[in-house]
Amino acid sequence: MITIEEHGSVAVVTYDRGERRNALSLKAMNELTKVAESFEARFDISAIVLAGSPQAFSAGVDLKDPERWAIDDKSLDERRYVASTGARMCKAWESLPQLTIAAVEGLNVGGGIALTLTCDWRVMAEDAFLYVPEVQIGIPLVWHTIPRLVNMVGASRAKQIMLLGDKMSSDVAKEWGLADWLVSKGQAVAHARELAQKVAQSPSHVVKMSKQSVNAYANALNFVSTFMDVDQALVCGQSNEAREARKNFK
Questions:
Q1: pLDDT tens for the chain, residues 1 to 250
Q2: Dihedral angle over CA of 240, 244, 110, 224, nearest 10
Q3: How far apart are CA 7 and CA 12, in angstroms?
Q4: Buried (b) or exposed (e) across 107-118, using 16+ Cβ within 10 A?
Q5: CA distance linking residue 66 with residue 64, whole number of Å
Q6: What gap in Å lies between CA 96 and CA 104, rounded to an integer?
Q7: Strands 181-183 and 121-125
Q8: Pairing mode, strands 129-131 and 168-169
Q9: Rounded to whole angstroms, how far apart are CA atoms 24 and 34?
Q10: CA–CA dist 102, 188 (Å, integer)
């Protein structure tokens, strides 16, 4: 499901589940978390490219994953832990000392967008598009994503993205700040690698300290404003209304 290639001081991590448009199952999220954690002490790696499949970065949380949704028989502690899987994945990627670049081809939905927003930069194919349908399936946008989103697009646009549930083209994503570079179809990984190689030419410790300084300021209050968002998702997601919305969602 996950492959890692290393090119000198640049690593390329590819998540390709091979089914369900790369939806994020619990197993996939746990594996992506482990991969991020494995790079924390890799002093020989300066930059990491995170890519999905050629057809989709990710279709978001897997709505048919029984491990994620069939949790009524578990204790509240267990349910909260399961519900926090995506947040822990995002935190692991956001906390990496290396510069991270998401390469997005095809569609990117909900939880997939949450993951790419934890990366430092995003390269997007011109025919790719974004889609945040969480509210339409009965849950708020969580995983501590809202402050990251607001930092990039502002409060009004963040509400538009979440509440309207409209698909967003790559041009709009670039205009609103959710994509940093647009490239031809099939070229997202190659361009991300070029950027990573350019960054890797500088001393690794300076790259990491520069990233840390920016993130310390930009993300200072993020957790304060969203520390309960996983619990909100758990409450909303287990409601009858959310179950019906998931069943009917297309």
A1: 999 999 999 999 999 998 889 999 999 999 999 999 999 999 999 999 999 999 999 999 888 887 776 777 888 898 889 889 999 999 999 999 999 999 999 999 999 999 999 999 999 999 999 999 999 988 899 999 999 999 999 999 999 999 999 999 999 999 999 999 999 999 999 999 999 999 999 999 999 999 999 999 999 999 998 999 989 988 888 788 888 887 787 6
A2: -10
A3: 8
A4: bbbbbbbbbbbb
A5: 6
A6: 19
A7: parallel
A8: antiparallel
A9: 14
A10: 9
- Reduce the DSSP state of residue 217 to 3 states and report it: helix
How far is CA 180 from each of CA 24, 131, 172, 242, rounded to the nearest angstrom?
24, 17, 11, 34
Q: Which residues of 34-43 are buried (b: 16+ CB within 10 A; e: fewer)?
A: ebbeebeeee
- Single-letter amino acid code for the residue at 108: N
CA dihedral 49, 50, 53, 57 (to 10 degrees): -130
Instruction: Work out the end-to-end distance of the chain between its first and last CA atoms, rounded to an integer number of angstroms.
Output: 25
- Secondary structure (3-state) at 197: helix
What's the rounded Cα separation, in Å, for the pair 44 and 204? 8
Say how many C-beta atoms besides its own lie within 10 A of residue 240's C-beta: 8
Q: Please answer whether residues 26 and 116 qualify as being in contact, where contact means their C-beta atoms are separated by less than 8 angstroms.
A: no
